User: What shape does this take?
Amino acid sequence: MGAQKTDIEIARETKLEPIVNVAKKLDVPEDALEQYGKYKAKLSEDFLESIENNKPGKLILVTAINPTPAGEGKTTVSIGLAQGLSRLGQKTCLALREPSLGPCFGVKGGAAGGGYSQVVPMDELNLHFTGDFHAITVANNLLAALIDNHIHQGNKLRIDTRQILWKRCMDVNDRSLRNIVVGLGAKGDGFVREDHFVITVASEIMAIFCLASDMKDLKKRLSEIIVAYNLDGEPVTAGELNAVGAMAALLKDAIKPNMIQTLEHTPAIVHGGPFANIAHGCNSIIATKTAMRLADYTVTEAGFGADLGAEKFLDIKCRKAGLKPDAVVIVATIRALKYNGGVAKADLTNENIEALKNGSCNLIKHVENIKSYGLPVCVTINKFVSDTDAEVECLKEILGKLDVPFSVSEVWAKGGEGALDLAKDVMKLADSENNFHYLYPDDLGIKEKIETLATKIYGAGNVEFAPAALKQIAKIEELGFRECPVCMAKTQYSLSDDPKTLGRPDGFTFHIREVYVSAGAGFVVALSGSITTMPGLSATPAAYSIDVDDDGNIVGLF
Assistant: This one.
């Protein structure tokens, strides 16, 4: 038996269809495509306007348990499910996020799926793609430059240099840029002040980009960004800095959604990509609505576990866009559940029914959370070769008590064929009773919204607010942002704010250290625990393995 092929080898061996042929599966004409080479394209603005009144198809949300070193494969299952629905004769489209270079060169690697359930061209997708993230980065940093230039040129708006909120960004993990000093040197080099960087996917412009309905809405949201406070404590906006037009010009092409394909040539619209642990974790509203207007089934995913990605999809994205999922899929692996049950990573291939039972509490909590929104939900296990029949039956029995459909997915090895049972469950669920509602009403206070999230979704017993956070909440509500939803920035590895606490913690104290408003995005961000908006690299980052071989092929991506 030969060595197992890597994801990039599988992707490279697949014969891709020209994107014009892939688009035809959704009745998209060739003249609606703005092609970036042969295998990827943007959908034109005129075409998007022409389908605005199309009846939307079913929306399927894929989420997961909290991520572990054992792996879950949420994106891989999402892609496999879309391929499975296509195999069943359904007109299907994926709606996914674009990968960030941060995790690509950091720990996680790429975000194009895996095995025989990938979106392609995977190397181009994982690196520069169509330049959307670069456009967002430049727009962000242009606004930062305009702020400092305004101060240097006389500071007509009386910006308080101690209360500048806007941070620069880049799409690479770099802890050294979290806290910096700018303006050093001669007088003409700018005003000396403390500054900060965030990763591009945490920028408010990324959030605005993904929540805007069109260019007009995008410009309105950009104008409402609060970049600083003046000496009287009043907000200063990007609109007041006359920054909106130039930022919009940089984002003019980026705002058009991108179309590529899966290994089985199912169409995929990939657009936008905020992280779920520090932002709202969903692809663009434009992409999701476009997919729904073109397909009978749209499969989309939300970042990390259901406590982050799915919660934000439901309470932020659906609230802003008027969307309602028709079914939710929760992805887990038996390996990850045993890890939650106390098994060391090195021992996860050994059968351990007791650890599986103990660790399944994490999955059960996520199932209960999704049910609390009134949504139909099913569970699928992303199968590994080490999973035993006894372990699969044990988990099936556990979920049977919750009256939740359960299937085994083998999408890495079999592609769409490995998701046929899941696809059938999803089609049935999508036609079942749906009583979707949000977790909290708009008019609930910011503090109360945070407490609701912490106690109902995470399982906390109480929330401890730092004094500074309470002052920030009072200021936010005074400025008129009380009705905004909350975007929690917390660790993805635990239901709690402690990444080392696995399983289903209960009754713990949840800590809020900072709260700020993203006025353009239309939500309030609450930072918990030690979460940071600019990640750092590990001791052996994935960048060490990435290279270009003698034939000009990129190697080492996974």
The CA atoms of residues 459 and 506 lie 5 Å apart. The radius of gyration is 23 Å. The mean pLDDT is 94. DSSP finds 19 helices and 25 strands in the chain.
